[in-house]
Amino acid sequence: MACDGASDTGNIPVIKKSVERLGFNFSDIKILLGNHAHGDHQEGDAMVKEMTGAQVMALAEDVPALQAIKPGGKKHPIDKILHDGEPVTLGEATVVAHLTAGHTRGCTTWAMKVQDGGKTCNVVFGGSLRSPETLTPEVVDEMNRSFKVALSALRRSSRRSPGRIQVSRKVRKAANKRPQSLH
Hints:
The chain is an alpha/beta fold and 183 residues long. Helix content is 32%, strand content 22%. The protein has six helices and eight strands. Strand 5 and strand 6 (93-99) form a beta hairpin. The longest helix has 22 residues, at 137-158. The protein is globular and about 45 Å long.
């Protein structure tokens, strides 16, 4: 599964190299999830789908914005439409979509449980909580709801460790690898 991994098409080769340097095969990506429907985050979905065969999934509220993104003049791929609170499972990994609208109508925060050292930890992949340029009463209501959802998810993720969010050993190990040149 890749979350928000398909920014504009020019970045796909860089993302592919990064995935492979972490020891994964880019071609093994089966599901592509975004966190909000902007071209700089999801324009490359079509290219990643073409390279991997991955299913592109998005929250229903972002479908119209995704359909307006025309990578290379082509229709944006959407294989499955998701809804708030819906789980997405691949193997033993399950992420749950949480609608945190405001930045876009279907901006999504993803959450999952992972085992680390015999403990269950909640991990949150936050969607953007930055408002769009034009604030309407509807957008303000969406943003207020989204802040509550995001704060609730963050509280759950740090319950066992007040004041900080736990990071799994695998993620820490990958993050501490010495960066290599991408050229």
